[in-house]
Amino acid sequence: MDDLKQKYLSAIADAGDEATLEELRLQAVGKKGEVSLRMRALGKMSPEERQVAGPALNALKDEINSALAAKKSALADAALDERLRTEWLDVTLPGRGDRHGTIHPVSQVSEEIAAIFANLGFAVAEGPQIETDWYNFDSLNIPPHHPARQEFDTFYMHRDAGDDRPPHVLRTHTSPVQTRAMEKQGAPIRVIAPGRVYRSDYDQTHTPMFHQVEGLAIDRDISMANLKWVLEEFFAAFFEIDGIKTRFRASHFPFTEPSAEVDIQCSWVDGQLKIGEGDDWMEVLGSGMVHPNVLQAAGVNPDEWQGFAFGMGIDRLAMLKYGIPDLRAFFDSDLRWLRHYGFASLDVPTLHGGLSR
Ligand code: 2NL
Hints:
Blueprint: H1 2-14, H2 18-29, H3 34-40, H4 47-86, H5 105-119, E1 123-124, E2 130-132, H6 133-136, H7 148-151, E3 168-170, H8 175-185, E4 189-198, E5 209-219, H9 224-239, E6 246-253, E7 256-269, E8 272-275, E9 280-290, H10 292-297, E10 306-313, H11 314-322, H12 336-340
Parallel strand pairs: 1-4
Antiparallel strand pairs: 2-3, 4-5, 5-10, 6-7, 7-8, 7-9, 9-10
Helix pairs in contact: 1-4, 2-4, 3-4, 5-11
Bound molecules: 2-{3-[(4-chloropyridin-2-yl)amino]phenoxy}-N-methylacetamide.
């Protein structure tokens, strides 16, 4: 019995983990364990033998059980010590800081514009950026050899010899979106068409891709007076200036007749531009009454329907509203300036959460 005790106590002392301890427990004092088998053998002993062996076996069983329990808690303590030693955390380290992206100013301004025109009853229309020359030019009263085609610095899509599909261009304005909207929906209609447009032009104030928003309102008796009201409402909301004045100057576009360029009131004080005050003017858009040929091309009867259209540059509007001095900022991959101009983090809703930032 002494070698049994020796054997188990030293095995328990040497055990490195709980699984080994459990194995030893089963071997020694489990149902079929060595100690248990010997206890079962007590029944076949003489009473004298049993009187000696019984208490000794009980004592051995108790001793092994308490050695197991002691070792088990020693192992748990050691495991906890090990975790405390390795899994430490320096709570004095500075935080990582947030790295939020921001909505691009052009996207934000597009959403602001769409939200304002939504309140005025205009829906947003979208269309392809690669257009046929018919939608981009012919439908807008710019026939094939019209000089205006040259003024647009158009990007033409490559065409293999023998390709008999109609010529395609990168749209030079979003007007074709409105032609398509009229074809599909007919009159009456009120839409704006914001989006990317392309012209082969690159210098300090021009980029080959820029953003435009056009507007269109067709009904039975829409006039330039309606245009003036809509634009003044728009500029008041966009620049957050009540009663901002506009000035209409006669102009010419192939797709409108009559046509007007529209200025907004501004002042220059010490080289600082202020919008909505003073007696200077800043040109912001082109507009006019939609040319009958344009209505006709879109399947709208010009004897029944009439309306206004306008177009303006979103990039420049964003620069004016947020005081961004250089167009190239829009194409810079360094986003620090975005925060400098106070652009909202991406998790701040704009369009659906209203106009506030
Ligand atoms: C400008 C001038 C303009 C339009 C765009 C338009 C669209 C249709 C019919 C008639 Cl579908 N006109 N758009 C009209 C006048 C001016 O844009 O300077 N944009 C930056």
